[in-house]
């Protein structure tokens, strides 16, 4: 597939400047709303891990989901669902191959994490990273099954929907539309996706994950596919962490071990093969939409 093929995006001729301004305003409105709601929650609920979780729910809704939907409605109106790649789901075979890809790429992503650790970083970055890890540890404390379900929603469902709507459904799609180079759009949106998390020691792994999700959207022809795979990736880690802490399994996903470059290469090769198979089965290359 040539790089001139495009995502299942539309034919709307809004200028890049107008779309950038609209997205900026939508993000500003979302963050302002989130700030007001968060202030009310903190004023009434106090400082606790439960409050923090609730604030993260507000963050996902107001920073990702609401701005993405609002932007799409302003720009596309009645075509919002279609333009965001939500009008159809992928074929069963494509779904299976995509779910396989998130596991086959795991070794390569772990290897990229090892390489990321070799990059010197200033103290303020390391301090921010340590603070983020400490917060995640607190959130992942799950005393019972109810805590597990809540964390699956918080870490699995909401980020999968919100981040895919914004980074793939809006940013990647519109970059591909204006640049006429969907693969460049995939990598640019993946870089933004990773940078926005402000977890610098995991920048490369998250960037590669974002790129995989972007390719699944492009090749599979449906944003639902990226949402599903994103959810499975996050929810799987939450469930495995819960099972390990409850001594139900001996598999510790946090255990550090060295990945040889050969293993990373095999992991990447298998994943690229899966993407090739998805390309053959998926609904991509909507040239008529690009030229229409």
Can you describe what's shown?
By secondary structure, the protein is mostly helical. The protein has a domain at 84-286. Helix content is 75%, strand content 0%. The chain has helices at residues 16-45, 49-76, 80-83, 92-104, 106-117, 123-139, 145-179, 182-195, 203-220, 223-245, 261-281, 287-291.
Summary?
The protein has helices at 16-45, 49-76, 80-83, 92-104, 106-117, 123-139, 145-179, 182-195, 203-220, 223-245, 261-281, 287-291.
Secondary structure blueprint with pairings:
Blueprint lengths: L15 H30 L3 H28 L3 H4 L8 H13 L1 H12 L5 H17 L5 H35 L2 H14 L7 H18 L2 H23 L15 H21 L5 H5 L1
Helix pairs in contact: 1-2, 2-7, 4-9, 4-10, 4-11, 5-9, 5-11, 7-8, 7-10, 8-9, 9-10, 9-11
The total count of strands amounts to 0
In DSSP terms (H or I, runs of 4 or more residues), the helix count works out at: 12
Uncertain segments: 1-11, 284-292
Structural class: mainly alpha
- How far apart the termini lie comes to 19 Å
User: Kindly state the mean pLDDT as a whole number?
Assistant: 88
Largest sheet: none
Percent of residues in beta strands: under 5%
Order of helices and strands: HHHHHHHHHHHH
Radius of gyration: 19 Å
* Percent of residues in helices: over 70%
Describe this protein with a few key phrases.
mainly alpha, 75% helix, disordered N terminus, 292 residues, 12 helices
């Amino acid at each position: 597939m040539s790089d001139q093929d495009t995502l299942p995006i539309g034919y709307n001729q809004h200028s890049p400047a107008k779309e950038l301004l609209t997205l900026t305003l939508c993000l500003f409105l979302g963050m302002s709303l989130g700030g007001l709601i968060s202030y009310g929650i903190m004023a009434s609920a106090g400082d606790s891990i439960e409050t923090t979780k609730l604030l993260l729910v507000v963050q996902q809704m107001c920073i990702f989901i609401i701005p993405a939907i609002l932007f799409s409605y302003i720009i596309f109106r009645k075509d919002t669902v279609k333009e965001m790649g939500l009008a159809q789901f992928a074929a069963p075979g494509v779904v299976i191959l995509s779910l396989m890809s998130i596991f086959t790429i795991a070794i390569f992503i772990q290897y990229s994490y090892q390489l990321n650790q070799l990059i010197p970083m200033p103290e303020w970055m390391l301090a921010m990273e340590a603070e983020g890890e400490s917060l995640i540890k607190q959130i992942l404390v799950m005393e019972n099954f109810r805590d597990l379900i809540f964390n699956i929603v918080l870490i699995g469902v909401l980020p999968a929907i919100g981040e895919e709507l914004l980074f793939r459904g809006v940013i990647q799609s519109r970059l591909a539309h204006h640049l006429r180079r969907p693969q460049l759009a995939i990598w640019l949106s993946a870089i933004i996706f990773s940078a926005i998390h402000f977890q610098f020691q995991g920048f490369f792994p998250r960037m590669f994950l974002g790129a995989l999700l972007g390719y699944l959207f492009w090749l599979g022809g449906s944003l639902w596919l990226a949402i599903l795979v994103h959810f499975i990736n996050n929810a799987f880690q939450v469930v495995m962490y819960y099972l390990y802490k409850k001594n139900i399994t001996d598999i510790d996903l946090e255990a550090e071990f060295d990945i040889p470059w050969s293993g990373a290469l095999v992991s990447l090769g298998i994943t690229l093969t899966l993407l090739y198979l998805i390309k053959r089965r998926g609904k991509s290359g909507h040239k008529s939409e690009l030229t229409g």
